[in-house]
Design goal:
heterodimer; A: about 325 residues; mainly alpha; ABC transporter involved in vitamin B12 uptake, BtuC; two-stranded antiparallel sheet; about 80% helix; B: about 350 residues; alpha/beta; Rossmann fold; six-stranded parallel β-sheet; elongated; SBP_2_dom (chain B); Ribose ABC transporter (chain B)
Amino acid sequence: MNNQALLFRRNKEAVLAFGILLLILVLFALNQNDFFTRYGPQSIFNQVITLSIASLAQTLTVLTKGIDLSIGSMIGLTNSIAATYMEPISQKAGSQAAGILLTVIIVLAAGCLAGFINGAIIVYGRLQPIIVTLATASVYGGIALYIRPTPGGMVPYQYTEILTGRIFDILPASAVVLAVFIFLVWFPLRRSSLGQSLYAIGGNEYSAFVSGINIDRTKLWAYTLSGLFSACAGLLLTAQTASGDPLGSSLFTLNSIAAVVLGGTSLAGGKGGYMGAVAGASILSLVLGLLIFWGVPSFYQNAVQGVILLLALSVGLLPKIKIKSLQRTG
Amino acid sequence: MLRKKYGFIWLKWIAAVLLLIGVLAGCANDKTSSTPKEEAKEKKGGYKVALSNSFTGNSWRSQMVKIFEAYAQKQKEAGKISEFFSSSSGNDPQAQINEIRNMISKGYDAIVVNAASPTALAPVLNEAVDRGIVVVAFDNTVDSNKVYNVNTDQVEFGRLQAEWLVEQMGGKGNILLIKGVEGIQIDKDRDKGHREVLAKYPDIKILQEGFGNYDDATTSVVINNMLSAHKSKGIDGILTQGGGENAIVEALKQNKIDPASIPLTGEMLNGLFKHMKESNVKAFATGQPPYLSASALDVALKVLDGEKVDKKTIIPLPTADNNDVDKWYAPGQPDNFYVDWTNPENSFGLKIEDILK
């Protein structure tokens, strides 16, 4: 089987999401007045980037038939750490670049640790992911509040500029970040034995176990990586807001689940992938923009998001319903 | 084989669209980016303005949005504005950032903002200013020197309340002090104003103080405890930042004290004016006026017209006491209706019906 066919087969659940995204982009082209300038793509990619990365974190846990309800809190925690310590560390380190780099490393380590704790409790405590991550979400939210009791803090201007600006004045930096996560993180991960194991566990844990896959280690990895990518989302949020907010990111948890599901990944595990989640995250982030272009009152904005999610889910269910009714009549 | 063909088709489509975006973005010049500012300078009027609000779900916010819309409609009829829009993103900074990004793309000449965060919105608002859009923040203002900020002085809020009460009491007597929410800036500012004035009157004694959280439920507990502890000593005044006026009047009645006998301070809420009207309560009210949205729009229009405006505008606080009750009381409206729906001189030319519909 050649590469394109493989790529398609692995992402066929996402076709619907990409269809909707394409429609939204066409509508953006018609309605976003600066779509065809260098500002248009920058605006679009800046809107989708944070949720897109957060949904990578969610994708990994959902693939193993788990879920991570602490993603929003981990983003808030890492966002608070970055906004609180980047300036002091830069001053101590003597140079802005070194300070930024050091803070990024600390934040990523904190994310890994938070994710690892989730994974360890789930795997070794033999507890349900939904309960564990709900509990740790409160814990991480509490730590974030301890670090940064009120929204505020600051990060160097350059940091914001690097991650939300344009490269060579044309290419949106957010587009590059997204490309890195798709091509240099997701594709290699999907191909690796870890990636295969994630799918195998989600598909059928017992078969995976019988086939010699180390279930505990794979799950531990899934949650640790979820923490790491949440930290990446936290760093991007820090760049977008140039400050920290311990509780302002709680919506990322539910939005990331919605994005993953909208992208065709099954909550029952083992099916789907990140490409769909990117489309799902983009749809959720951009559809509100259309309503703003059209001057639709904001009461309808949440409702429209919900309706899109429901529609996408029901279209995904259609084949199954058909099969069921065939079985009944036949 | 069939699958392979499909795979090619949809991948090609996505690739084509992405390429198209890239190419068009790459070769497009930034004509649109520089024109709005120049146009705005030339055309004087017919501006497009937008309100980006964050939190909704209390009466202050919904009144504030309605006042903006009503005033913008007036300006539209006058030909000053060609188009207006208001949107509320909820208390989520990322959502409001996206909302503002799209307002920038839509090409509004001015964006008026009640910010979800004083810092988080600064980068995107600075970007808007860099692209020639006039940005005016109000109520929850923004830490940026590129943005115009419109607000009231909350220390003055406290000062006005305390000055009135001291005058009513003749400069001496016992008072109860009910503050707002512990730790927030507005509470600290208003409290500072209270104490500045009280410091000048050593004959006024604070019997007890507490936090009422600006709501009736919390205030009710606080005031009942205070009354049972200090009723016998004689209470000559109640100094509260506001929000719990109903609870205070009720508590006084329950403790067999005539509410008309003790002067009290509060906010510009309909409930307080109802008590002034019906129970002859002697009270003084001031407040964060919901018409700040209209004031912010005024500032935006001035800047668009090329007038020189300070980066920071302080709007005078509206005040009223029991002598003005008929001017402000809105019979038939709920207790949490803010009676200061337009400024005292009504420079916006609004009618109450405009706000209620």
